[in-house]
Structure formats: structure tokens, C-alpha cells
Amino acid sequence: MTAQAHRTGSAEALLEIRQLEKRFSLSGDFLDQLRFKGGKLVRKQEYVHAINGVSLDINRGEALCVVGESGCGKSTVARTVMGLLSPSAGEVHYDGTRIDNLGSRQLLPFRKRMQMIFQNPYASLNPRMTIQQTLEEPLRLHHPDWNRQQVVDQVEQVMTSVGIDPDWGKRFGHEFSGGQRQRIAIARALAVDPEFIVADEPISALDVSIQAQVLNLLMDAQRERNLTYLFITHDLAVVEHFGTRVAVMYLGTVCEIADTATLFAKPRHPYTQALLSAIPRLDDDGPQHIRLTGEVPTPVNLPSGCVFHGRCPYANARCRQEVPALQTQDDGVRVACHAVEEGRL
Amino acid sequence: MALLEVNHLDVHFALRKGDVHALRDINFTLERGERLGIVGESGAGKSVAAFSLLNLIAKPGFIAGGEVNFEGKTLNTMSERRLRKVRGNRISMIFQDPMMTLNPVLSIGEQMIECLKAHRRITTKAARAIALDKLQQVQLPSPDTRLAQYPHELSGGMRQRVIIAIALLLDPDIIIADEPTTALDVTIQAEIMALLLNLCEQHNVGLILITHDLGVVSQVTQRMLVMYAGRVIEQGPTREIINDPQHPYTQGLINALPQMATPGEPLNQIRGSMPSLSNLPSGCAFHPRCNFIRRADGQTRPACVEQVPGFVTSGNCQVACHMVAELLEDRRLQEESL
Amino acid sequence: MTDSADKSAAAMPALPGRWERFRDSYLLYSFKRDVIAQLSLLTFIALVAIAVFAPWVSPMNPYDLAQIDIMASELPPFWIDGSDPTYWLGTDAQGRDMLSTILYGARVSLIIGFGAVALQAIIGVSFGLMAGYLGGRVDAFLMRLADIQLSFSTLMVAIIVGALVKAIFGGATFNAYAVPLLVVIIGLAEWPQYARTVRASVLAERGKEYVDAARVMGLRSKRIMFRHVLPNTLSPIFVISTVQIANAIIAEAALSFLGLGMPETHPSLGSLIKAGFDYIQSGSWWITLIPGAVLVVLVLSINLLGDWLRDVMNPRLYKG
After folding, report:
1. In Å, what is the CA distance from B29 to each residue of B63, B65, B77, B90, B196?
2. Measured in Å, how far apart are chain B's first and last C-alpha atoms?
3. Chains near A, with 3+ CB pairs < 8 A?
4. Which residue among A187, B190, B201, C169 is the one 20 to 30 A from A96 at the CA level?
């Protein structure tokens, strides 16, 4: 892990995540942590290790997809980058400035440049605010010098750009369908003209036909506004279509980072291979996936060595002891796997 | 005679603004050992269809017309007592949320044994042996310890395996599975789906799989129904529909999948969204979203707006679409004139 | 910018005005179908109206000593022999007209009830909001404070405050400021109810994505709390307010009955009940029972309304 940790991003990296860690305490406050053990009072603290030493660079103009199954820490990465969670260790740099330790006031200029789109369009709009109010709020905050007309014009422009009729501004969120709500949530993120957007599973709560609409909208926005995306998803089919590069996460660590085309053509990490083979494709008749044994371990008691060794068909003694580091392959793909390194795979 | 026959099934929901037609004129059959998929987006009525088969729709919903025949007996007019002998015994259900089936305060073993004893005259020891055997069939690791465990001690994937074991407990003829893997991760989903498929094939059990996932349907089922706004709009052999969908909605649904487009290019989207059942468009419910509503000469096909399309047969499939009907009619006329 | 513009626009019904929205609301719908709710609302409005307009509708002014005729004391209501037609519901031991006294008494009870609940709500909602949204130490401190407050009963607070005021300023001052004092006493004693309810719903709302969205936008905590979170916790606040008003009126009546509340010269329903209690034995039951019945009807109508409101606003039962 450490080998690549200090490889600071290339010149065009907009966002750099360095050795990010996030633990959540399970033990409550001090009194709850006290336990009797063998007649002695001991303090016992338990943590969920949501992310463990994740380093990622996101380049200007690209869409970096972070993919993994539930509990792999991908959403925690997104929320930590946006400052909704503060990291337990590690740093987040945005355009050369470290932002993870900034106060809310110093962070304000960055809020205008980086925005977020959430998973559940039924929860991400305030039910007591009209669409107009929802969209005006960020503008009034970030452009206190604008007059009423400028604000209204910008709202109208951004509503049109996401395909929502500006005349609907007086309505409340619950009057819209899921797809329309997600468009409104996207409009709210785009209203302040950001350059970087974190999208946390933005289409997984939507129906298939609506997913395509929203995905197209996100791609159009990227092209027209030159956006950079950190796109969190569990759906590899979407990644293949949308991503410039892909980072595959498992149990809080990145196991493979590659260009999308390379990853889909030649997945290296055994977990990536299993994940790819598990996508239900239309063109085959039966599920022919790589069988993984066992279940995902809990992030409370992380396995020793490679976090994947318990389910990996290629695991050996070294995998059970030594944590693999991300290593760059000939074609630029970076994989954290002893089997790949030793040529066993 | 088919094992299960659904004829002209209508389901209404009595709401305060009047009845809403949740299902209209559903017809299908299921042969012994056959696997049928019901596909649709949320609001299409696919879950209502599943629940209405066993007369399990909750109020304010009710079956307003049509019948569900199982081995020649009409289920929807049967008394609750006799119906209970079919439910769980001959036809069992698997839900998306395993906790709908599992009782959190009873151990897995207690629930399975209780279920067996409710339907059969059997000793606890024999019931335990059957339960153990079913848990082995679903490849649950160390099944005898699982019997003593409670549902919350198992992971999501293991719970869904237990659910499948319970569904198989009484050797049913049909399993109805409502989005059985939607809440699970991809790798777990693939395993559970493969397991379900295997078990159905092994024991010659019929499967009705309700899902929004076309990939899953294409891998598991032999025939499928596509539903839209409470109606079936296309039905036939799964392969044929997936490879050559006739209805514009089915085409749109398949083409909208990211795997059908070139990476980086826009996806083929269907515009608009599913209408609410209480406010359906006139004629074909899909017409406001349909790209084929205009004929080749630029004229709007009036039938699409005015008239609900009936089924026409195209190959082995049945399609409810005026455009397809017109194409077929044209082709027939051409063939006749030749 | 996209051809994806949602064409189902046409399918959207016209924007309803405020009145139309209310007319189509579930609230009105369920009210129309609930006879008990209608009756309770009617009773409640009637009682509030006559209490508010007591100075104009009541035949006499019980506070005006000139209108009191001590010779006409303990007259029975009109349906009993020996009644005087001037005094419809009879008179009390001091010769005050019962009807007028009850109207003025209900007025005092309602003022104290609403006032105390307003105070409870202001303290309880702000503390609950802060505890739920800010969490951590603020939460721990405020909730322990609530626990301590709840461990003092309303009665103990009243006795302590009443005794202190009487000892320091004398009984006359206490009597003169009895209404605001009772508002403060009942208000202070019961704020934790609000704080706990609000905190629970704030905790539920705080986990929702619209709050995250507001944070990502860079809004200050204060604005998020009051503009985003608070409006979404109003339903439970409404529901417990009904219960709390009923409770406050009962608490006031209980305090007055024990002699810790309103003086008899300026009676509330509670002090009327107390004043008449001594005369039950002598056969003048109406001095106690009639104000008692009014109190029961008032509290019952509020509680029944509260029950209905809770059923309507319960999000799990809500079907639009």
C-alpha cells in the first residue's frame, strides 16, 4: 500500500485521496465501553473499519467509477470526500489544497466547486420546500451579490438543462416521479456551476427505462460543463458505459484500478473477475459465473493479510498473512494481489 | 390441462377516489416444471400479479374478475381453509425481504419444523431430518448448527438460502419468487439464482420469477411476460422476446440497458415515465412514450390513442400493439397477393 | 440541452391553489368521515369561543364585587325548586352567578393551558432540535437535563416556586401574578415531553439525504435546523400539543384544587371545583359538579381531537 501512497497525483489530478481511513465506533460513549472481563474492569472499543488506506487520484474531466458490493466502503469514500464525514486518518486534496481539515467557513468556496448527487430521490428533496425554493437556496448562499432576477434566471436555465419545465417551480417534490426528482436533485447540484460532482449510486433507486434517461443526462452535463465525476455504483454494466477509469473496492480497500476498457477486457484481481462474471447478461442462457465461496466478512474484525483471501480460489499462506499493495502492471493497471504479482494468475 | 391457468384476471384497489385497476385481463399458463418470468418496472403490477395468484392481496385490493386455476381448482373462490392447504404446501412464495417470511424470535429449525408439522402428520424427529436435508440442498454451510440459529445471526445471502429451503420444504409444485435477489449483492445474487435454477430443474418444480432485471429473466426462465401499467403487453418464449422483442416498450427496455450501447455514447432511453394507474392515458397506455405511434407516412396511428390493443400472434409470441398488428396484417396481405 | 426533456409534462395536473390542496387533502377527507372528531372540534370551538367572549356573553361579572349579592348565595340551578331565574346555573357560596363564573373560569384555564404549552413548545422544541441535530455532548447534556426535570413532578415545582414567591413577595403579589406564574410553572415542568419527541424525529430526519444535501451546499447548522429539519418535524409537534394542552389544563386544575393555583377571587375551573367541594356535604353539589363537568368536556374534546390527529398524521398509516 505504501509504495503508491506517496505517488502524488499527476499535474491534472483535481482530487487526490491519500491513505484515507475511516472507522466508526460501535461502542457508544465511555460508560458503555466498560466491560467486566475476568474480574477486572476493562475498556473495550469496537470499530467498523469502513475504509482502510484508500488512495485515489481523480483527473480533471474524467469519470472515476468506484465499484463494489454493499459494505465495501465506496459510499464512505464519497461522503468523506464531500466533508460529510471526517476521516480517521489520511488526507483529501482538492486542486492542490488540503480540504479534509478545513472548517465550514473555509470550506465554503469549495462547496461551490464540488457538489453531490444522492442515491434516493425520494429522500434527497426537502418535502416542505418547493422546487423553486430548493434550487434558489444554493444560489442565494453562494451568490449573495445576485439580484432576484439573476437568481430566477439561473434557476430557470438549470431546470431547462435537466429537462424539467421551469413552470413547475411552485410544486413540491412529492408531486414528481422518481426520475423527475432525480433530475431536480441534479439541477440543485448543477445550479452553482460546480466542476466536480460526487454521484453516490445516483440511478440505483430508479427503474430501468429511467436509469437510461438519468445516465444520459449526467453524460450530457459532463460534456457540456466539462465536469469531473466520482461515480459510486454497484452496477458494473453502468461502469462499463460511463466510466473513464474504474476502482474496484472490497472491504474498505482498493483491489484494482484500471481504464474501463482494460478492466472489462482483462480483469486481473480475482475479485474483479468474479464480479464481472456475475453480471447477468442478456446473451447467455444460464448463469456461468465464477463461484466464490463463503460470505463477505464483517468490517468489524478484518481478516489478516489480503481482505479477500477467505473467498479467493487462489489464496495461499502468503495471502493470509501479508497485505498486498497496489502494484502497477505493464499496461498501467494497478492491482493489489499476491497471485498476480507472483504470476500465479 | 396446464398446472396453473390464469384467465382474465382483474385486480382492483378500492381507493377513496374510486377503484384503481391494478391488473387488467391477465392470462397465462404454467406447465409442470416450467419457469416463467414476469418482468416490468415499478408500478407495472407484477407484484400484485404474484400476490393475487394465492389470493394474498391486502386490502383495499381485491380480485374483481377472472380466475386462477390450479390443477383445475379455482383458487380465488376457494375457502380460506382450503386455500391454506395449497399455500406453502403446493405453491410456495419467496419474497424480496427474507424477514417477511422469517420470524425473528424463532430459530430456523423451529420455523421449519413448525411449518412441516402444520401441513403433515409427522414426528418432530422426522421433520428435523427433512429440514436438515433441505438446508443441505441449498448448500448452507454447516446446516445442523444453522437449525439452532436465529434469522438475525445469518447474512443476507444465507437468509435467502434458508428462505429457499423453507419454500422447498413441502416439495411444492410451484415456487413464486418476488424479486428474490434484488436486495443482494451481484456475486451473491448470481449464486442464489444459480441455486434456485438448479433446484427447480432437479425437482421439476415450476417457477414464477417476478423481477425488473432482464438479465436474470433471460438466464433463468423459459417463457416471460412483460407488464406495463397493469397489463401484459408481450408474452412468449424468453429467448425469442430477448433476441427479437416486438412491442416498442420491450424493445425500449432492452435497448436502454447500458450493455446494449457503445461505451461513452448516449443510451437508448425511453422518454417519459410510467403513468400512474389512477390516471392512465387513453388507448394503448404506452402511447405517450412510444416512438412508433406515427406511421411511415408521418400520420399518427389513431388506434393507439383511441383503442386498447388486443393481442396478436407473432411467431411464438403474443404482442399487444397496434403497430405490430398493422405490420403483420401488411405482411399477410403481401403474402396473399403473391 | 437534452432531448430527454420529460414529455409527460402534459400529463401533470394543473397546479392546485392552497384551497384546492386543502379540499383534496387527506386531513379534510378523514375529518369528514369521523363523527367523533367533528363533534369534539365543535365542542372545543364552542367552549373556546364563549371563554374568549366571556366578558360580553356572560350575564354578570364575577370579579365585580358590586354585582355580587351575598344574600343570593347557594341558589340551585334552574331545574331545581327554589331557583332564581336570574341565576341560570345557580350561585356559589359567595353569591356569584355560576354561569358567569364558569365562563370566566374556563377563560382562565384556557389562557394558562395555551400559555404553558407555548412555553413548553418554545423550550422543548429548541432543546430537542439542538440535541437531535448537534448530537454528542450537547445531546447528552440536554437530555440529562430533561431527565432531571422529569424527576421533579409538576406539583413539586409548583410548591417550590409558589412557596418561594409567597415567602419573598407575599401572598397578595402571588395572587396578582398567579396566571403568568402558573404558565411558567407548568411550562417549565413539562418541556421535556416536547424535547424528547422533537429529538426523536430530528434524529430520523437528520439521516435523510436532503439534510446531507443542505450540508454539502454549505449551509450553516442553524439554517439547516430551522429551515430544513424543523418544518419536517411539525406533525408530531402538532399531535403532542393537543395532549399537552389537555394535560396543562388538568395540571392547572389540580394545582388550583390544592390551593397552589388560582385564588378564589379570580377562579379557574380548578379553583371553582375546590371552592364548591366544601358544600357538597351541605347539598349544594352544583357548585362543584357543574365546573367539573365543563372541565371534563373540555379536556375530553381536546384529547379526542388529539387522537384523531395522531391517526391522520401517523406517516405509516398515511395514504395520500
Report:
1. 18, 17, 18, 16, 21
2. 39
3. B, C
4. A187
- Rounded mean pLDDT of chain C? 81
Strands (DSSP E) found in C34-150:
none
- Cell numbers 392512465: residue: B280
Report which residue type is found at A274: A
Which of A211, A216, A286 minimises the CB distance to B219? Answer: A286
Check B273 against C7: CB less than 8 A apart. no
Q: Which residues pair with B318 in a beta bridge?
A: B235, B313
CA-to-CA dists, residue C248 to C118, C155, C243, angstroms: 11, 12, 9
Following DSSP, what letter does each residue of C278-292 receive, concatenated? Answer: TTTTTT-THHHHHHH
Omega within 30 of 0 (cis) for the link into B60: yes
**Main-chain phi, psi angles of A116, to 5 degrees:** -135, 145
Does residue C279 register a pLDDT over 80? Answer: no
Grid cell 429537462 in the structure block, residue: A163
**Burial status of residue B218 (CB atoms within 10 A of its CB: 0-12, 13-18, 19 or more):** buried
Residue type at B147 in one-letter notation: L
Q: In 10 A of CB A88, how many CB atoms?
A: 17
Kindly report the backbone phi and psi dihedral angles of residue C317, in degrees, each rounded to the nearest multiple of 5, phi listed first: -90, -15
Per-residue pLDDT band at B164 (split at 50, 70, 90): very high
The pLDDT value recorded for residue C8 is: 42
Provide the 3-class DSSP secondary structure of residue B7: strand
pLDDT per residue rounded down to tens, chain A (345 residues): 343 434 444 457 899 999 999 998 887 666 677 777 777 777 777 888 999 999 999 999 999 999 998 888 999 999 999 999 999 999 999 999 999 999 888 999 999 999 999 999 889 999 889 999 999 999 999 999 999 999 999 999 999 999 998 888 888 888 888 889 999 999 999 999 999 999 999 998 888 888 999 999 999 999 999 999 999 999 888 898 889 999 999 999 999 999 999 999 999 999 999 988 888 777 765 556 677 777 778 888 888 899 999 888 898 999 999 999 999 998 889 999 999 988 887
CA distance C231 to chain A (A): 7
Question: Rounded to an integer, what is the distance from CA C196 to the centroid of its chain?
Answer: 18
Q: Is the Cβ of C217 closer than 8 Å to some Cβ of chain B?
A: no
- The distance of C137 to chain B (nearest Cα, Å) reads 32
For residues A289 and A278, the answer to whether their CB atoms sit within 8 Å is yes
* Three-state secondary structure call for residue A168: helix
Dihedral angle, C-alpha A25, A26, A30, A34, nearest 10 °: -130
Greatest Cα-to-Cα distance within chain A, rounded to the nearest angstrom: 72
Which whole-number Å values give the CA distances from C313 to A171, A213, C211, C264, C310, in the listed order?
A: 21, 35, 22, 40, 5
Question: Half-sphere exposure (CA, 13 Å, Cβ side) for A112?
Answer: 12
Residue in chain C closest to B280 (alpha carbons) equals C11
Q: Which three cell numbers stand for residue C28?
A: 379534510
Q: Which stretches within B16-155 are classed as H helix? A: 46-53, 80-86, 108-119, 124-137, 143-147
Label residues C16-53 b or e (16+ Cβ within 10 Å = b).
eeeeeeeeeeeeeebeeebeebeebbebbeebbebbee
- Chain C contact partners (≥3 CB pairs within 8 A): A, B
- Distance (Å) from the alpha carbon of C301 to chain A's nearest alpha carbon: 30
Angle, nearest 10°, between helix axes C154-169 and C178-206? 140
Residue C7 pLDDT: 41
Q: Contact, B227 vs B49, CB < 8 A?
A: yes
